[in-house]
Amino acid sequence: MADFAELARTVLSVELWDWLEGGAGRERTLVGNRGAFDRVAVVPRVLADVSSCDPACSLVGSPAALPVAVAPIAYQRLFHPEGELAVARAAADSGVPYTVSTLSSVPMEEIAATGATTWFQLYWLRDKGAVLDLVQRAEAIGSEALVLTVDVPVMGRRLRDMRHGFALPPTIRAANLDGGAMSSAHERVERGSAVAAHTASAFAPSFTWYDIEWLRERTGLPLVVKGLSHPADALRAAELGAAAVVVSNHGGRQLDGAVPTAVALPGVVEAVRGAFGESCQVLVDSGIRGGSDVLGALALGASGVLLGRPAMWGLAAGGEAGCARVLSLLGEEFRHAMALAGCPDLAAVARLRTTTMPCHCGGDHQ
């Protein structure tokens, strides 16, 4: 995976690399996400028949060859001319769901035409009519889940983007939204991010639990609530009918200093499983960088993970083939980790015990 990061760095401009890799503020949460997964240690079992390890599962009702879905990431044509189409085809070939972003740079209808199993990620817009239109379009293309992002009432202070004065190139747009509403994302702002300015004008900071109730009454799609860290919030989402929750801090791009996802995950799992059993799955993202991370996440209680930045590394490095290779590597690494941990199937992975490796960083997590 790290090799693909270096390949992507060589082909992307500094501005684009920083847009992809950067976090909010001092990037403490960005760094903490990786550090927390690095400190997850599983206690392997032995003398199990691992001649054939089966990583297949069902995620939010969708069949998956791995306990992995591709996370929603905006404007993927920034990294390769085919953008979302290339990643969706790679996901289809790999047998994992692909999450279409509200801010995708290719219309959702064209992405669905690739044949990928699609989930649709929804940002809550100020215009509820536009929200409902997006949901109805997602239903029409056969999306199998609606992934509602709840951790962006306002965009985090992403200092790398602000220093670059980041703006979208004229050829890139949010293809699922009205063109006029997107014009501000192309206009450079001195000492600021044009994309952040657009978010401030388009997204609703007044978004609350009542809106989730309103949405639940208007769609039959399985609802996935993404962007939770607190067990009480996860319980509230499950009580409102969520089929899954995603423990996520937006890859460290929102609240700087937010708890790393590997640290928050066990508390959310305990709360949701204790009250709802398997009727509400718990997924996790933010910091997944390889097969051992997937093993650790499942051993901590997750049903699956969402893969974000590494999929974009593959896209930037080699288009559809590059992304497909990243997903293939992830599968190889995960099956290998299953075998070495003595786990022929995902039920055995869920039974693994975990502990925490000591931190040898002298107290400096930066």
UniProtKB/TrEMBL annotation:
Organism annotation: Streptomyces milbemycinicus
Q: Tell me the ranges covered by the FMN hydroxy acid dehydrogenase domain, including all copies.
A: 1-359
Which protein are we looking at?
Alpha-hydroxy acid oxidase
Please indicate which superkingdom the organism of origin belongs to: Bacteria
Q: Which InterPro entries match?
A: Aldolase_TIM (IPR013785), Alpha-hydoxy_acid_DH_FMN (IPR012133), FMN-dep_DH (IPR000262), FMN_HAD (IPR037396), FMN_hydac_DH_AS (IPR008259)
Gene3D superfamilies xrefs: Aldolase class I
UniProt KW keywords: Flavoprotein, FMN, Oxidoreductase
Family (UniProt): Belongs to the FMN-dependent alpha-hydroxy acid dehydrogenase family.
According to the UniProt entry, its GO molecular function terms are:
oxidoreductase activity
Write down the SUPFAM superfamilies for this protein, in alphabetical order: FMN-linked oxidoreductases
Give its E.C. classification number: 1.-.-.-
Q: Per its Swiss-Prot or TrEMBL entry, what cofactor is needed?
A: FMN
One of its Pfam families is FMN_dh
Say which enzyme class the record assigns: oxidoreductase
